[in-house]
Write a structure and sequence with these properties.
Elements lengths: L1 H40 L5 E2 L1 E3 L2 E8 L3 E2 L2 E5 L4 E7 L8 E4 L4 E4 L5 E6 L5 E7 L5 E7 L7 H13 L13 H5 L1 H39 L12 H15 L1 H12 L5 H21 L13 H23 L3 H9 L3 E7 L5 E7 L8 E4 L8 E7 L1 E4 L1 H4 L5 E3 L4 E2 L4 E2 L4 E7 L5 H14 L3 H31 L4 H15 L2 H21 L2 E3 L2 H6 L5 E5 H5 L5 E7 L5 H11 L6 H12 L9 E5 L3 E7 L4 H4 L8 E7 L1 H6 L7 H5 L2 H13 L3 E7 L2 E9 L6 H10 L3 E5 L4 H11 L3 E3 L4 H13 L4 E5 L5 H6 L2 E5 L4 H6 L2 E3 L5 H36 L3 H4 L5 H21 L18 H6 L3 H11 L9 H10 L3 E2 L6 E2 L6 E5 L2 E5 L2 H9 L1 H6 L1
Parallel strand pairs: 1-5, 3-6, 5-11, 22-29, 22-31, 29-30, 31-32, 32-33
Antiparallel strand pairs: 2-3, 3-4, 6-9, 7-8, 7-10, 10-11, 12-13, 12-14, 14-20, 15-18, 15-20, 16-17, 16-19, 21-33, 23-28, 24-25, 25-26, 26-27, 27-28, 34-35, 36-37
Helix pairs in contact: 1-12, 4-5, 4-8, 4-9, 5-6, 5-7, 5-8, 6-7, 7-8, 7-13, 8-30, 9-11, 9-14, 11-14, 12-13, 12-14, 13-28, 13-30, 14-28, 14-30, 17-18, 22-24, 23-28, 28-30
Length: 978
């Protein structure tokens, strides 16, 4: 009976002990959970910037994270951040301030400085190039004192009241943004050095892991040396793997944990350290563990580290290609230029100098096959120039005297001499590099989701691993502790936040780079993401659908008036205008060797024409019978409404006797042919009508067809007459045409389309397109257009071909599909892998994931994202039709616009056109209406409804859009000097 008594007593005692141990483990897990939540999510103390010579200065150590991570400064004052990078490796090689468009390379074991000025209170995050290390610059309105929590609330409240923060980097910060070549070289050099170092560590890891891995995996099936099964031998073999090969992983991982900013290396470091320590106990003191729990996991430690390093090598090699776009653009720039010098004796000599030494105004000689060193204008010679490297268009372009040239393009078989007009950072190539770098360092809206998840991902994984162990301890079979450790280690190892962090920025970098090579420049990742959502495109006509280089095709004067005098008068009146139609008339006068009369004064009537004043007798044959007693005469050039507004009655008997009716009939005939008609009156009497033509661009019809194929609706806007507008629209396939509109109506139409629920893109090239480009959901500027239009746009089409707009939309769609695939890889691996690693399948099929397999899955997750993102380089761009595009209500579109009234008026009297506004004249008209002028785009705006204002040198400037504000902030003096 005694043995029975002992047996009956031992079962309850064992159950009690087991129950008590489970309770203790549960209590410990709860305490650790609370500690982890507090450690990672508790408010952090802000480090105050120190004032050094009037500049707020902070020194930041970069070593597995940023120390300090939270920096507090005062808004509106210059800030200098000195980054002391005390490590090497890809992760921390860049620091990116998205709000300031700064991407600064941080060379290993060197200090680097970033200077900026926070414009207002708010939080300005910064991160490493891989989006794994994070810091925060917190700007406050008042002095930088008080608790971090209070300042945080103040900063968040301030920022929530405004739009996305912008700032003007100081001069010292600009090289970080514009010097794409040196930054890219430094990044490539460091990445190459890192690949060499990782390769050495991988070879060591592979050599010492294989003797442990092979017996562990195949020892049950194949005869193995008994020595290799010895735990002490395995320990000796794994020590170099753990402490040499795995040193960068452990160093980075534990430092990141210490910075309260864990990342992928932290999880691997935790997992391998846990497995190694457990195996060490099994080797050194196996008696501390139950008999069924004395199996070491050295092979898992070695395999995980080896696979991790292999993944990092492949990832670094793949990421090295993401800089190809910048590298290729920088490589286009020649290093020398042949400059023509004129000596004191008047003799010309040529001298080869560095491109950086070329100055504006220098005359450059270009021989056949050479690259053009800088931008300029041809002064002699003729040659075809290959501009494909900056425009994406394969066909060479013929360049002759007066034509503009783009630096880095390749001269053909002829010789050219040209005058340098843009050098250094002002060249088209430098601007393209700036735009590409800015876009690549910006964040797409979709990345916000990944960032939010990443911020809680790793603490969440640690908690899942902890409670996985608790679950196995409480409910698992014996040896439950071993099962719990294996499952917890597998959870830590299989989770891959790196894939989540890389999913969006890699695709954005490659997508914007591919766009740059095709002549499509995205200003930001937001523009890249938004382009594929467009369902309606609004197109300007002149310079967008047409060539933008009108020519005078016909002229008809009234009886008794010489045709040359008609052209001479019109050209003299338009001699100061930069409008393409005006230039066509002036050029014709020059071709006919007609002497232009100096203009005395003029008045511009926006959307109608010009009233120019000349000295009396300037055009004698027309005015010899005039009774004008003044010492001046007026020349009107514009549409019929202009002439009638100036008191010239075109409908009376006298006008008809002067030949007005046949002239009107001819004008209508010209309009039916797609020509633009312009009326001319001299000294109060009708003088004649001119017909100007602007040829449709070769690719416009195909581009419109492709847009229609994608269910994207198109609308053409023009100040031209209705007949000409409809004729041009018919040529290219645009069925919706709004003609004879004022410049300000373009933005109103875009706004009306948005009110109907459309996602609107605006494509334009002129100053008067800038407000519409800014108003649109996506502004696309023709690269051959004005700087103002380009500055106001989200996308620049360098070649000026509308097919580039289709390419921009298709590339956006391809990039977004690629990002979604990357996110699926990131979430998919973790969503499926973590539960399997935790052991949810064990009760059903007895599957418990080996940590080695978890390590392989982790490495493959990150590698899958990198490889899939690089696939975007060569993915064919296919048409993806917009689903269920909403119909456009054309009646509602113009119902409340000013265009309705003057459109009906003009249709009653006949269709003529006179969009002859001059930029300077517009400002004169605006002054009379108590409006102000946007100094960037030159448009008239009401100060009370302006998007923003800036005080500069004692004067207040108002802006129509945020894009204009940003342009002004970047260099106010340059804008004002323009």
């Amino acid at each position: 009976m005694k043995p029975i008594s002992k047996f009956t007593i031992s079962i309850p005692l064992g159950g009690i002990v087991s129950h008590m141990s489970s309770i203790l483990v549960l209590i410990a897990a709860l305490a650790i959970t609370a500690g982890i939540i507090w450690y990672f999510f508790a408010p952090r103390k802000a480090t105050q910037a120190k004032d050094e010579g009037g500049v707020q200065t902070v020194h930041i150590t970069v070593k597995g994270g940023y120390s300090p991570q939270l920096i507090q400064v005062q808004a509106g004052r210059p800030v200098k951040l000195v980054f002391d990078r005390q490590e090497s490796g890809e992760c921390s090689s860049h620091v990116v301030f998205n709000d300031f468009n700064i991407d600064k390379t941080l060379p290993a074991f060197q200090t680097s400085t970033v200077q900026l000025t926070p414009p207002k209170a708010g939080d300005y995050p910064f991160a490493c190039g891989m989006n794994m290390l994070h810091g925060m610059l917190r700007a406050t309105d008042g002095p930088t004192t008080g608790s971090a929590e209070a300042q945080s609330k103040q900063a968040q409240g301030s920022q929530s009241q405004g739009e996305r923060p912008q700032a003007e980097p100081t001069e010292s910060a600009k090289p970080a943004q514009t010097n794409g070549g040196s930054d890219q070289d430094e990044a490539d050099q460091e990445r190459t050095a890192e690949i060499r170092d990782l390769t050495r560590r991988f070879i060591v890891a592979l050599v010492f892991t294989l003797p442990v891995f092979i017996p562990a995996m195949f020892g049950m099936f194949l005869p193995m040396p008994h020595m290799l099964m010895n735990p002490w031998v395995q320990l000796v073999l794994i020590l170099p793997v753990m402490f040499y090969s795995g040193w960068p992983i452990h160093r980075t991982g534990w430092l990141a944990l210490a910075h309260r900013a864990p990342e992928m290396n932290s999880l691997v470091a935790l997992g391998t350290a846990t497995a190694f320590l457990y195996s060490l106990v099994v080797t050194v003191a196996p008696q501390l563990l139950p008999e069924g729990s004395r199996e070491p996991y050295y092979e898992a430690v070695g395999t995980i580290i080896t696979l991790m390093i292999l993944g990092q090598i492949l990832e670094a090699r793949a990421r090295r290609g993401t800089g190809d776009a910048i590298r290729a653009l920088v490589g286009l720039r020649p290093k020398t230029a042949t400059v023509v010098r004129t000596g004191q004796d008047g003799r010309e000599t040529t001298q080869e100098i560095a491109v950086d030494d070329v100055a504006v105004g220098d005359v450059i000689q270009v021989h056949p096959g050479e690259k053009l060193p800088v931008d300029g204008q041809v002064i002699s010679g003729s040659s075809s120039v290959d501009e494909s490297m900056v425009t994406g268009e394969p066909m060479p372009v013929l360049k002759q005297e007066g034509d503009s040239l783009v630096g880095a393009t390749v001269n053909g078989t002829g010789s050219l001499r040209y005058k340098a007009t843009q050098v250094g950072q002002d060249t088209v190539l430098a601007q393209i590099i700036r735009l590409v770098k800015t876009a690549q360092t910006s964040k797409a809206p979709i990345q916000k989701l990944a960032d939010r998840i990443s911020s809680i991902f790793i603490p969440g994984v640690i908690l899942v691993a902890l409670w996985t162990f608790v679950a196995w301890w409480a409910f698992g079979p014996m040896p439950r502790g071993v099962y719990g450790i294996v499952a917890a280690v597998s959870v830590l190892v299989i989770a891959c936040p790196c894939a989540l962090g890389l999913a969006t920025p890699l695709s954005v970098t490659i997508g914007t780079g591919r766009g740059a090579r095709a002549g499509v420049l995205y200003r930001s990742a937001e523009a890249l993401q938004g382009a594929h959502d467009v369902d309606t495109i609004v197109l300007d006509k002149t310079g967008t659908i047409t060539q933008g280089r009108p020519e005078l095709a016909d002229a008809l004067s009234v009886q008794g008036l010489d045709e040359d005098l008609l052209i001479r008068a019109a050209a003299s009146a338009e001699s100061n205008s930069e409008h393409p139609l005006a230039q066509a008339i002036v050029q014709t006068a020059k071709d006919r060797n007609l002497e232009l009369v100096p203009i005395k004064d003029f008045d511009s009537v926006t959307g109608a024409g010009i009233d120019a004043t000349f000295p009396s007798g300037s055009f004698k044959s027309m005015t010899e019978n005039s009774r004008n007693e003044e010492n001046t005469l007026h020349v009107l050039v514009g549409n019929r409404r202009l002439l009638e507004g100036k008191g010239i009655d075109l409908g009376n008997e006298k006008a008809d006797q002067a030949g007005a009716q046949p002239l009107f009939d001819t004008a209508r005939s010209w309009e039916d042919q797609g020509r633009t008609t312009i009326f001319v009156a001299i000294d109060g009497r009708l003088a004649g009508v001119l017909a100007v033509t602007d040829q449709v661009k070769a690719g416009s019809k195909q581009a419109i067809h492709d847009m229609n194929e994608r269910n994207i609706q198109t609308i053409m806007l023009t100040g031209d007459n209705q007949g000409t507008a409809e004729q041009v629209g018919g040529q290219v396939g645009v069925t919706r045409v709004v003609a004879q509109i004022h410049p300000e109506d373009k933005a109103s139409i875009v706004k009306a389309l948005q009110a109907q629920g459309h996602k609107v893109a605006m494509i334009g090239d002129g100053i008067n397109d800038a407000p519409a480009l800014a108003q649109a959901d996506l502004g696309m500027a023709i690269g051959t257009g004005t700087d103002v239009a380009i500055e106001s746009a989200d996308v620049t089409l360098v070649s000026g071909d509308l097919n580039a707009a289709v390419k921009a939309i298709d590339l956006s769609a391809a990039t977004m599909r690629n990002i979604h695939q990357n996110l699926w890889f990131a979430f998919g691996y973790n969503g499926l892998g973590i539960p399997i690693a935790a052991g949810v399948l064990y009760p059903f099929i007895g599957l418990l994931l080996n940590p080695m397999i978890a390590g392989a899955a982790m490495a493959f997750s990150s590698l899958s994202v990198v490889l899939n993102a690089n696939r975007l380089r060569h993915t064919p761009l296919k048409a993806r039709p917009v689903k269920e595009a909403k119909p456009i209500d054309m009646d509602a579109l113009t119902r409340d616009l000013s265009i309705s009234t003057h459109q009906e008026h003009n249709q009653e009297k006949g269709n003529e056109m006179g969009l002859f506004h001059h930029h300077d004249d517009m400002q004169q008209d605006q002054a009379a209406t108590d409006k102000v002028t946007d100094p960037v785009c030159g448009m008239s705006i009401d100060p009370s409804t302006a998007a923003a204002k800036r005080d500069y040198q004692g004067k207040t400037y108002y802006f129509c859009s945020q894009n204009c504000v940003d342009t002004f902030d970047a260099d106010p003096q340059k804008v004002l000097d323009k």
